[in-house]
Amino acid sequence: MKAPQTRAESLRSSRPTGVMMSKFIAPLIALLALCGCAGIRHPNYYTLNTSNSVSAPRGTALTSATVMVQEFRAPAYLRQDSIVYRPEPEQIAFYDYHHWAEDPRRMVTAAVVRDLQQTFKSAELYDGRGDTDFLLTGTLDHLEELDNGRTVSVDVGISAALRNVKTGNVIWSGMSSKTSVVEQRSVPGVVAEMSRELSEAVEEIVASLRNELSQSTLSRR
Questions:
Q1: Residue 178: how many CB atoms within 10 A of its CB?
Q2: What is the rounded (10 degree) CA torsion for 104, 108, 109, 112?
Q3: CA atoms within 13 A of residue 148's CA, in its CB half-sphere
Q4: 10 CB burial (10 A radius; 0-12, 13-18, 19+)
Q5: What is the 3-state secondary structure (H, E, C) of 53-103?
Q6: Reduced to 3 states, what is the DSSP secondary structure of residue 139?
Q7: For the segment 72-119, what is each residue's pLDDT rounded down to a tens digit?
Q8: 3-class DSSP state of 113
Q9: Are 60 and 127 in contact (CB under 8 A)?
Q10: What is the percent of the chain with per-residue pLDDT over 70, rounded to a whole number?
Q11: Is the per-residue pLDDT at 35 higher than 60?
């Protein structure tokens, strides 16, 4: 009859099996992790490039007035972080893996503030405090991709109004709407076209405002 194993003998006899199991388990865990990572699709993030500032016409002096710009508003569907597209004119959809890195309202507001700094003595973002001569408010009306069957285009629109803080009167209002075909049919191509059209829309808005201020100044002379 075989004598029963001692605890030490039992541990020694089971050790090779444990070592072999660990050799199999470690690669298995690594393989499962690799398969899991391969199945994960990470989102892409984009920002609008509106760095092309409008230049003030030569011979036109900057006004000595100051202005503050309230953050632009936007419809609820444009306040999401996903890029918007319209598969049909009456339908709104959102990209699952293509998002804005920053709120489009902030990007539009920053572009307007930057361009107004060439017209006013001071142009800053309105934070609810501080004295200013004028307050500019606005809305991002459109910023979406349009799918028209064989073509893809973008629709960009902004509107704004300038209010005299002392009197409360709106002395100027304007809007700009842009639609253009996307040559590079990809999300980066769509964003690039949005950036270009938004830059032009901001330029038109600021140029219209500047023209109104210029005419008002001349009429008082």
A1: 20
A2: 170
A3: 12
A4: exposed
A5: CCCCCCCCCCEEEEEEECCCECCHHHCCCEEEEECCCCCCEEEEEEEECCC
A6: strand
A7: 999 999 998 999 999 998 999 999 999 999 999 999 999 999 999 988
A8: helix
A9: no
A10: 75
A11: no
Q: Are 123 and 202 in contact (CB under 8 A)?
A: no
Tokens representing 137 are 């408010």
Rounded to whole angstroms, the Cα distance separating 196 from 194 reads: 5
* Strand locations in 105-164 (E): 120-125, 134-148, 151-164
> Rounded CA gap, 14 and 6, in Å?
12
**CATH class for the region spanning 47-219:** alpha beta
What SS3 class is residue 188? helix
Burial of 92 (0-12, 13-18, 19+ CB in 10 A): middle
Tokens of 221: 């002379």
The helix (H) or strand (E) run that includes residue 197 is helix 187-219
Q: Which residue has the tokens 């075909």?
A: 181
Domain extent listing, the chain: 1-40, 47-219
Query: Helix 187-219 vs helix 104-116: angle between axes, to the nearest 10 degrees?
Result: 40
Between CA 41 and CA 33 the distance in angstroms is 14
